[in-house]
Hints:
The chain is built from 2 helices and 6 strands; from the N terminus they run βββαβαββ. It is α/β, with parallel strands linked by helices. It has a 4-stranded parallel sheet, with helices on one face. The radius of gyration is 11 Å and the shape is globular.
Amino acid sequence: MNYPINLELAGKLVLLVGGSRLAEAYAKPLLNAGARLKVVAPELSAGLNRLVETAKLQWEKRTFLDSDLVAAWLVLA
């Protein structure tokens, strides 16, 4: 599966910085493309919180650190 920017994301770690409704809008297509999704944000939108509860994505409840970039294949902020 491809994300709309034509990248093969299956199995790749994608970092979302921020937990807003905009990040939520990015999350669903990324998950549909097979990405392993990690969100770094102090708070999450209701929709992102539901994805965490169903173990569809990983959430780190904190602010962004430069070291978050090390393992990420793609970053959206």
